[in-house]
Amino acid sequence: MVRLERELIELFPATLPIYDSLSKTADGRTWLAGLPNLVAELAAEWSLTLHEPFHGGTASWVAPATMPDGRTAVLKVSWPHREAREEATALRLWDGAGACRLYREDRDRYALLLEQCVPGTPLTRSEDPVEDRLLAAADVLRRLWRPAPPDSGFETVADVGAEWAATARERMERLKPPFDRGLVEQGIRLLESLPATATRNVIVNGDFNPGNVLSADREPWLAIDAKPMVGDPGYDPSPLLLQVDSPLEYPDPRPVLRQRFDLFADAVGESADRLLAWSVAREVEAALWYASRDELDDGIGTMGNARTLAGLL
Predict the structure, then answer these.
(1) Against a cut of 0.90, is the pTM above it?
(2) How many whole angstroms separate alpha carbon 45 and alpha carbon 108?
(3) What is the pLDDT of residues 263-274, one digit of tens each?
(4) Are the C-beta atoms of 28 and 38 separated by less than 8 Å?
(5) Quick one: how far is CA 34 from the chain centroid?
(6) Which end of the chain is least crowded, N or C, by CB within 10 Å?
(7) What's the CA gap between 312 and 260, in Å, rounded?
């Protein structure tokens, strides 16, 4: 029997962001319809007691669980997509050093049983000064950035950057959003050129935003929800540096950004200008993504971020 703490229906409330995100396509709706049975099967096979799911995430269903020996864990079931394919591969290689541990994997069903981070406070909600939070995150990244073994199966930052650059150009020409064409082209060229000038190639986390860095009892901070690739480590820090609080909303964000990029770059052994360049590239790509979703106001705001960051180079 599947042991559930609550009625099965209560584990899949329609208010979970994943329902809003995936219900927009036929494939997504089909997967969501089968999600309760999929979770029930995994809970039975792995002898889990499931608890109320976490309210977050747009591409995976995630809930705390109790294992047969009484230990706590997290069951994560992802919508099958390329970014989730090698998460378990990276977690096995990291083996708990800077990231949550992997207990079990069902690769075909995109299901992971993971170490639960307790208390699990995200870095965004830490009461520590911003500089201390940045240095703590830098320590996590230094441990994650390690060479990948041959034939690891990871995508490369270079290939993904080239794909994003081509997609951004196509969107700019097709959609013709009111964006600064010179700045868009600068961001696209950076997506194409930065990977080739990396001083080292490592496993990058791929989604190192401060909401994915959680407090834990085993280590002070652990990374979750990796979307790993191999390549330039400079790709990783941008979401952390721009989201740990709201530096771009300061009356004059330039000195704040410069100080933070300098601090973080020194802590991880990278060039601050290189981290800034990656941030420009990623903000331009994100702006074109917003435009493709008819979210033009967000795209215009993101291009404003890119302009501020480019001004610091």
Answers:
(1) yes
(2) 14
(3) 999 999 999 999
(4) no
(5) 25
(6) N
(7) 12
